[in-house]
C-alpha cells in the first residue's frame, strides 16, 4: 500500500514539475480589436515576474495594426523608437529596481545614457485582465513612492531566450494599434 502511495506521489510531482517548466505564453484573441484573454489561459503575475527577470536586449520594435503613415514621435516620453533599438534592459529580482541602457546613435538618441527604473508586474487578473509589465522612470533624487506616472505593456511571450511585450497605441480613428517589443536574453 505504501509503495502505491509513494508511486502516485512521485508521478504527481513529476507531472507538476514538468508543467511548471514550460514556456510562458499568453494566448490572445482578437475580439473587438483588443488582445485580451481569460485569466485561466495565461501565466500568473508571479510566473511572469520570474519569466521577465534578467538582462535583455531590445532587438526590434514592430507595428501591429498601425498604418505605416502613422507617425510615432517618441515612446515612454523619452525618445524615438529607433533610439531604443539595441538598448539593454536590466530587470533584476529583489527590489525590482533596474536600468535601461541606451546604445543607439542618432540625433535624438543618448548613446550610453542609463535610465533607472522601478519595474513590476501589474496583476490585472482581479479585474478580468492579464498581468502587465509596468515601470516608472526615476531621476536623481526621486523616491519611487513619489513618482506617480509610469508605463504598462502587455506581456505576450517569455521563455529562456525571448521576451515579447506590446504597447497599446491609440490611433486617430478611435482604433488601437500596438508597438511590439522583441527582446532576447543577454547571456552572462
Walk me through what this model shows.
The chain is an alpha+beta fold and 188 residues long. Helix content is 16%, strand content 38%. The protein is built from three helices and eleven strands; from the N terminus they run αβββαβαβββββββ. It has helices spanning 2-20, 45-52, 81-84, and strands spanning 24-25, 29-31, 34-36, 54-64, 88-91, 97-101, 114-122, 132-138, 151-158, 162-170, 176-185. An eight-stranded antiparallel β-barrel has the order 4-5-6-7-8-9-10-11. β10 and β11 (176-185) form a beta hairpin. It is globular and about 40 Å long. The model is unreliable at 1-39 (pLDDT under 50).
Secondary structure topology:
Layout: H1 2-20, E1 24-25, E2 29-31, E3 34-36, H2 45-52, E4 54-64, H3 81-84, E5 88-91, E6 97-101, E7 114-122, E8 132-138, E9 151-158, E10 162-170, E11 176-185
Antiparallel strand pairs: 1-9, 2-3, 4-5, 4-11, 5-6, 6-7, 7-8, 8-9, 9-10, 10-11
| Helix-strand string | HEEEHEHEEEEEEE
Distance between the termini: 49 Å
How would you classify the helix and strand content by structural class? alpha+beta
Beta fraction: 35-45%
Strand order of the largest sheet: 4-5-6-7-8-9-10-11
- Overall helicity: 10-25%
Name the average pLDDT. 81
Largest sheet: 8 strands, antiparallel, barrel
- Counting copies of identical and different chains, the oligomeric state is single chain
| Number of DSSP helical runs | 3
Q: Calculate Rg over CA atoms.
A: 19 Å
Q: Unreliable runs, pLDDT <50, ≥5 residues?
A: 1-39
What is the overall shape? globular
